[in-house]
Design a protein that fits this description.
The complex is a heterodimer of chains A (312) and B (285). In chain A, 42% of the residues lie in helices and 20% in strands. With 312 residues, chain A is of the alpha/beta class. Chain B is 44% helix and 12% strand. Chain B contains ten helices and seven strands. In chain B, the strands form two sheets. Chain B has a five-stranded parallel beta sheet, sandwiched between helices. In chain B, strands 4-5 form a two-stranded antiparallel sheet. Classes of the chains: A alpha/beta (312), B alpha/beta (285). At the A-B interface, α4 and α6 of A face α5 and α6 of B.
């Protein structure tokens, strides 16, 4: 069994590691530092941590002011509040002036679980993706998150990184190298290719294994950077299999499925299935239960792939 | 003897500042008329405030816009962009002739300030309510770096209806940002009518005081009083200062003064002629 790490923990630990090296890093939170794991940075570097209280709009504006003054602010809260409550502040004060603010939001997706719909960000990728200058990244495991945080510190410009609440299997080893805008191609399949992001990558790998047992050559691509999208990887996958499944812990509208569709419809149209939340709000429940309830399991991915292949 | 000299010097300086503010108003009405749209009332109402800041109070260098020690200015009420552009041109950040490109395709002088296009502006504004948070961030950064610069942020009175302003008001007091001074253009009008009728903000001074701020109320067209308020703000330790500057919307041109309809429209060519004549009459002496 693979080691299990929550991407939010990986974020918190990496921030502390980076904070020791780079004195220009400042961290802001909106009263959720225990949950987003920025609390670890707060403990290590209290003079560079700013709790803004429950005020996400002010959180973003303050981060913007710090950024134009040469600091590298990491601003964190839950994904729904960061991307939703402060969307227009992100647009005006971060993206429009192309400000070097790092938004790292935890509790993305349905697996927030028991807190229910109000706290489950199912729209954040879409909301962030429409903003010019924004980079959108959803790491698939703890190791990728570590590398993403180190990479976005070096990168200049606005970035939105989505972290999850729960422990998920480690996929990548230390030899893995994350690059913004570069898809991680696990395998290119001839029958079907699954393009996934976040926690759905490990389910997609499981689905591909299951399909292999049935003699189906299914590829898996981890699209951790949703913007800028690795169009080349998407087109190559479509050309190889002429059937694409996308899988994300997010509404099927405007997120990874949307981004991949936009590319393929113009460049190389092929039959597609989008695994994700079907234009609905979430609900309370245990994370595993919810993944089943909303059709986000390895079994659902496999089923979608089979349906596409059967239509060929 | 020495004291008298000083008073005279200040007097001369104030006369110069008044003349500068007058020239800035001339630029504002000219550029707005040329643009055919834009915010006349709130640009004119705050002209004396920005003149006091840029020509007497703030340390800044038009030849070195990114001088690290410069005092910062954030125009939170971004729709007063014509005023900011006129002031920056008057300071020498760019040629006055560029003012006539306001709101035109390809111009650095966007309808609302764009810091990417015009780097002598600290940050893009225009969507109301965000400037104080940004000013707080700059003030925090200044403190982290033990820098001596001060941060000034200018808000509109209608603007304080935005909830984010009060989030930021709390933060500035919480973090004891005494290197920050906010100035409120209390011109009492917003686009839909009187602030009092649209959404009352009174008692505005008490509100800021209750949020932990040092509050100074002054005449927003009296440059001597404005400067004395700004100097007082600088001396206050442990809390930020809000200067409530009582102003007249459209100040300087009687046909625009106190008229709500001139919040968001530019003068016509005929109105420009009247305005220029009136402003010409306001020359010192």
């Amino acid at each position: 069994m693979a080691e299990m790490v929550a991407t939010r923990d990986a974020y918190g630990n990496t921030l502390v590691e980076l904070g020791g090296i780079h004195k220009d890093i400042v961290v802001l939170d909106a009263d959720l530092s225990g949950s987003t794991k920025t609390g670890k940075f707060a403990k290590a570097f209290p003079e560079r941590f700013f709790n803004m209280g429950i005020s996400e709009q002010d959180l973003i504006g303050t981060a913007a002011g710090l950024a134009i003054s040469g600091k590298v602010p990491f601003a964190s809260t839950f994904a729904i509040f960061e991307s939703g409550r402060a969307w227009e502040q992100i647009r005006q004060s971060v993206c429009y002036p192309n400000n070097n603010v790092k938004l790292v939001a935890s509790h993305g997706g349905i697996t927030v679980g028991e807190d229910g719909a109000s706290h489950q960000a199912l729209e954040d990728i879409a909301l962030m993706r429409v903003l010019p200058n924004m980079t959108v990244i959803v790491p698939a495991d703890g190791e990728e998150m570590c590398q993403v945080i180190k990479t976005v510190y070096e990168y200049r410009g606005p970035v939105y990184v989505r972290a999850g609440r729960n422990k998920t299997p480690i996929i990548y080893g230390k030899e893995y190298q994350f690059k913004i805008g570069k898809a991680v191609v696990h395998h290119i399949g001839r029958d079907v290719n699954i393009i996934a992001t976040g926690i759905m990558v490990s389910y997609s790998l499981q689905a591909a294994e299951a399909l292999k047992k049935e003699g189906i050559d299914a590829g898996v691509i981890n699209m951790s950077t949703i913007k800028p999208l690795d169009k080349e990887a998407v087109i190559k996958a479509a050309q190889s299999s002429r059937a694409i499944v996308t899988a994300e812990e997010h509404t099927i509208i405007g997120g990874l499925g949307g981004a991949v569709s936009e590319v393929l419809v113009e460049e190389f149209p092929v039959p597609m299935k989008r695994i994700g939340i079907q234009d609905r709000f979430g609900t309370s429940g245990a994370p595993e239960e919810l993944l089943k309830y909303f059709g986000l399991t390895a079994e659902d991915i496999k089923k979608a792939a089979m349906e596409l292949i059967n239509k060929k | 003897m020495e004291t008298i000299m000083e008073v005279e010097e200040i007097g001369t300086k104030i006369d110069e500042l008044r003349e500068t503010a007058r020239r800035i108003r001339v630029s504002i009405v000219k550029m707005l008329t040329n643009a055919g749209s834009g915010h006349t009332g709130g640009s004119l109402s705050a002209a004396d405030i920005l003149t006091a800041l840029y020509f007497a109070k703030m340390r800044h260098d038009p030849k070195n816009p990114k001088w690290p020690e410069r005092d910062r200015f954030i125009l939170s009420k971004g729709h007063a962009a014509p005023l900011l552009y006129a002031v920056l041109a008057e300071c020498g950040y760019f040629e006055k002739s560029e003012l006539m490109t306001l709101r035109k395709l390809g111009s650095r002088l966007q309808g609302h300030p764009d810091s990417k296009a015009l780097p002598c502006i600290e940050i893009s504004t225009g969507s109301l309510g965000q400037g104080l948070s940004i000013a707080n961030g700059i003030a925090i950064a200044g403190r982290l770096d033990s820098a001596s610069f001060r941060v000034n942020v200018h808000l509109g009175d209608g603007e304080v209806q935005e909830g984010q302003v009060w989030e930021a008001a709390m933060s500035a007091a919480h973090y004891k940002l005494d290197n920050l001074c906010a100035i409120l253009d209390r011109n009492r009008l917003q686009i839909d009518g009187k602030v009092e009728d649209v959404m009352s903000i009174e008692p505005i001074a008490d509100k800021w005081r209750a949020f932990g701020w040092n509050v100074i109320e002054t005449d927003g067209h009296d440059i001597t009083k404005l400067l004395s308020a700004m100097n007082e703000a600088e001396k206050v330790k442990g809390r930020p200062t809000m200067i409530i500057a009582h102003t007249i919307k459209g100040k300087g041109v009687s046909i625009f003064e106190g008229k709500v309809e001139y919040h968001g429209i530019a003068p016509t060519k005929d109105e420009l002629e009247i305005a220029l004549k009136e402003l010409e009459g306001q020359r010192n002496g």
